[in-house]
Amino acid sequence: MKKFWNEKAETMPEEAIKASQLAKLRETLTWVYERVPFYRARFNEHGVTPEDLKNLEDLARFPFTIKSDLRDNYPFGLFAVPPEQCVRIHASSGTTGKPITGGYAREDMDQWGECMARTFWAAGIRPNDICQNTYTMGLFTGGLGFLLGTETLGATLVPAGAGQTERQIILIQDFKTTVIFGTPSYALTLAEKAAEIGVDLRETFLRIGIFGAEPWSEEMRREIEERMGITAMESYGLTEMGGPGVAFSCAEKRGLHINEDHFIAEIIDPVTEEPLPLGEKGELVLTAIRRRAMPLVRYRVRDLTRLYREPCACGRTLLKMDRVAARSDDMLIVNGVNLYPSQIESILLEIPEVSPQYVIVVSKKGYLDRLAVDVEARREIYDLGEEKLREIEEVIRHRIKGVIGLSAHVRVVPYKVIERSEGKARRVVDNRH
Ligand code: ADP
Ligand code: ZN
Question: Is 332 in a helix, a strand, or coil?
Fold first, then answer.
């Protein structure tokens, strides 16, 4: 059985990848300059034309595209082909505001399917797998992207969709599902429901999960593997780049490989906007070099990560990025201290008495911010009584203070008090504005 979905593309020497990137990038810059008035005007304002691109470093001379550009040009202003020539139009789930659109030409579907198939193959999925998709198969790119990937690879898809958790568990048993797709937070919801109705997911045929669409910590990954008895793999992407399929994990489970022949990744300092060298942490910037209906140039993703090129034991030469532990939109500033929800998550997952069901509430108290963390006790713990709960709260408070430097009001709440996720979890309530 082959080791890679597309051996040639996934194991190309660095020089060859770069040469093909340059050619595709030049084509894309010309394509948008000629077809998208927004890009023509933007490039002109910056005094650059596609001819100014002589090598890959020249990309840094081109302007960024930002989320508000997509919103300002909603719905079709950034399309490079008329919408009626698209075979598909998606919109983002709108986690951070007004939705944004993405158009797909026929060849965009092919490239998307290819990138997803690479993701699945690297995760160990083969044509005889039965994959249950718990993503919503609608406007949100995740659901139909995973469907397309399964079809491209030739595996079987069970389009279960989001929610109806008990039914999902019945399907897993009856259909002998081997692979599960969804958000990490939904994986927990599923594991918990299974325990509740007395089903041990470790005893089913499930062997692989591919999760994504929201940040999750390494501790959460291990928790999911443990509770479901699977290997938890990952897919990364965003509507603006067509959806999932931008980057994927391999058997090494360290970082994600970027589909570099489709997307050029850069890291910039979010404040100075200057490109940073490989290895440094900053904001991810992506350029789609093979998309046709809506290729974005230097899109500021607002996710924080690090890029590195190192020989990977899996044999792929594709550039790697660290898993995205945080989107910069999620960063909270509490009494002057920067805080990401994933930091709290990592702390909570190290405390065996609580479950990873939590919510962070920030409010104003006079001139100061008040940080509160509500976290659920594991089912059997809550009954141990007040004293035990106060003790656990104290441990968590102490850890948060030590690791993050903030005083938090911690409450251990009963099992099932916190709303369960069916898609992207909402972990932060900011009442300050
Ligand atoms: P929205 O912006 O409404 O959430 P998208 O579905 O396009 O819409 O979400 C893309 C974002 O989801 C990414 O920019 C990133 O913040 C997050 N994301 C997607 N996949 C992952 C992943 N594997 N790990 C962490 N975050 C992810
Ligand atoms: Zn690898």
Answer: strand
Q: For residue 278, give the nearest of 295, 262, 299, 255 by alpha carbon.
A: 255
Q: Answer yes or no: is the C-beta of 213 below 6 A from any ligand 1 atom.
A: yes
pLDDT score for 95: 67
Query: Looking at the domain covering 331-430, what would its CATH class be?
Result: alpha beta
| Number of continuous H segments (helices) and E segments (strands) in the chain | 11, 20
Q: Which residue type occupies 191?
A: A
Within the chain, which residue ranges are assigned CATH 3.40.50.12780? 1-327
Q: For the segment 191-250, what is each residue's pLDDT rounded down to a tens digit?
A: 999 999 999 999 999 999 999 999 998 999 999 999 999 999 999 999 999 999 999 999
What's the 249 CA to ligand 2 centre distance in angstroms? 7
Counting ligand 1 atoms within 8 A of each CB, the residue from 65, 70, 90, 95 with the most, and so the one to mutate, is 95
Return the number of other C-beta atoms located less than 10 Å from residue 180's C-beta. 28
Q: Which ligand is nearest to the CA of 4?
A: 2
Helix 341-349 vs helix 386-403: crossing angle, to nearest 10: 130
CATH match for 1-327 among 3.40.50.720, 3.40.50.12780, 3.90.45.10, 1.10.8.50: 3.40.50.12780
